[in-house]
Design brief:
It is a single chain. The strands form three sheets. The chain has a five-stranded mixed sheet, sandwiched between helices. Strands 9-1-10 form a three-stranded antiparallel sheet. The protein has six helices and ten strands. The protein has a single domain, classed as Collagenase (Catalytic Domain), CATH 3.40.390.10. β5 and β6 form a beta hairpin. 27% of the residues lie in helices and 20% in strands.
Length: 227
């Protein structure tokens, strides 16, 4: 009983402490060197019929955000096709868990990004993104991932396609377990994750606020700290 009484004050201190105290979050470039200098043409190849509607919503989600905040210069086009065509600069394919595991060594998969067929950057989870000189990006998504998880995975991977790395926490004031972010670009899958203002700011930072006209900044984007 005495132990419980001693723990009660600690519980209330933790309960009412601000969850974002002293956090300095940042985004890395996802390993792109030149970035996009044209509007990406995103081709979704033969999506699972039962998920098709939600998949398209996920692929176009960033565009909806850009339109909502009237962000100019970051448009991209999305097409649903039965097979790959040469005009596609981003290919999204849905594969089995075995195919993902063969590439990534895990059922969660990983993300690889490169500007040449043999050079790869940044590690991630949930899907595979490869980048080639002749075709900007390939995205392979586990079609049989947990129910309801495919959509945020696709939104997350589209952020990587544009060049946004994972949102990370540099310093947490000694209370790491209190820090929480709902950013879709966070490394781990989080319920109710979203494209945040900070994610969009990172994208604009990398492209110099000029839209898809090539990367200007390739270093870390540090989110301005608010006390």
């Amino acid at each position: 009983m005495k132990t419980i009484i001693k723990l009660i004050p600690i519980f209330f201190i933790l309960l009412f402490m601000p969850i974002s105290a002293n956090a300095n979050d940042y985004f890395k470039n996802f390993g792109l060197v030149s970035g996009w200098n044209v509007e990406p043409i995103v081709c979704v190849i033969d999506p699972p019929k039962e998920q098709k509607h939600n998949i398209i919503k996920a692929v176009t989600f960033w565009q909806k955000v850009f339109d909502t905040i009237d962000l100019q210069g970051y448009d991209y086009n999305v097409f649903v096709l039965e097979e790959d065509v040469d005009d596609c600069s981003v290919i999204i394919r849905f594969v089995t868990e075995a195919e993902v595991r063969a590439r990534a060594g895990t059922s969660l998969a990983l993300t690889l990004c490169s500007e040449s067929p043999t050079l790869y950057f940044a590690l991630g989870k949930h899907a595979i993104v490869t980048r080639e000189s002749s075709r900007m990006c390939y995205v392979y998504v586990n079609a049989y991932w947990a129910e309801g998880s495919t959509n945020p995975i696709i939104v997350h991977e589209m952020g990587h396609v544009f060049g946004i790395g994972h949102r990370a926490i540099d310093q947490q004031g000694g209370f790491a377990y209190l820090i929480e972010t709902k950013d879709i670009m966070y490394k781990q899958l989080i319920p109710f994750a979203m494209v945040t203002e900070e994610s969009v700011d990172a994208l604009q930072y990398f492209y110099g606020y000029n839209g898809f006209n090539g990367l200007v900044n390739r270093d870390i984007y540090k989110i301005p700290h608010i006390e």
